[in-house]
Amino acid sequence: MTTPIALTIAGSDSSGGAGIQADLKTFAAFGVYGASVITALTAQNTQGVRGIHTVPAEFVTAQIDAVFSDLAVGAVKIGMVAQPASIDAIVAGLTRWAPKHVVLDPVMVATSGDRLLAREAIEALRKKLIPRASVITPNLPEAAALLDEPEAISEAAVENQGKRLLAMGCRAVLIKGGHGQGEESIDYLFDGNGTLALAAPRIATANTHGSGCSLSSAIAAGLAKGEDLETAVRDAKAWISAAIAAADSFSVGHGHGPIHHFHRYY
Length: 266
Known about the structure:
The chain is α/β, with parallel strands linked by helices. The chain has 8 helices and 9 strands.
């Protein structure tokens, strides 16, 4: 039996709710073996980010090569990349090892509002990483930042931004609607076949720390198991909605608490 394996390339969250820690929990929740390449260490908790220590690019390279030279990676999730040198190391690694699926979550700002991506790295993200992605998963503010324009507030504006992000070279775009308004949280998937709207009830909770990281990791887990993109996105959307709905059963920290990755099990 082949073991499905997914790799996360992202930053570490010392409080365990987002980043590498959330990604590995998500992979485990989906029955996928998780490996990791750490791009940065963050000193953070549910209330905010207190410090960021960037991992040298050459060590990012060393981690990538160590994993791919031994493990049969079915899908890669990329989260916090921190700096331009890390992006160059990741792009070079993807070129060397050519993984079949790459899910890019363009992480720029934490749930707490703290910036996680150097401003000078945004252009490198646009030009170097996005064209390598099977799918990118920006939320509404991230989609606007990638296009350097105001946040979309209508369905037509979201569709316009989705198509323009698709034109940057990725194979698909999932714009997440969690930052929107209304009774439903609607995510929009754009690819060469058109647009797919995925709606779920909007959940009233402050405990959404790590939700974006976890959704992109859930998609990567599905792809690693051999699912097609639409199936992986639908499964990930259903799972993240349930994980957010169960978040208030936790009592973790004094700020934006984590989602419940293992709501299916306890």
